[in-house]
Amino acid sequence: APQPSQPTAWQPSAPQPSKVALGGVFAIASDLGMPAAVADRAATLLEARRREQAQIASTRKALERRAAELNKEFARINKETLSWRPVVISGAAAPAGSM
User: Fold this and answer.
1) Collapsing DSSP states into helix, strand and coil, what is residue 28?
2) Domain residue limits at 64
3) Are 19 and 11 in contact (CB under 8 A)?
């Protein structure tokens, strides 16, 4: 199995941004003389952050879709409300305190 300190081990033939970025972490850590465990931890944290950012983006898109649905529903309700006309019933009792 390839060692984490080998940056090429993380780079597939069709580059995937997160994998390439992780390979870069190992290359920099190796250049700085950091232990492989430190580079591995940094790569783990970067990958976790990438997953969190992807989740945030997905949640944002879902919320934007829901907001658009709610805006359409509110527009429909407002349209119905504005077209509503109260029915006046002749002979109805006057509201309390109006006399």
Assistant:
1) helix
2) 39-81
3) yes
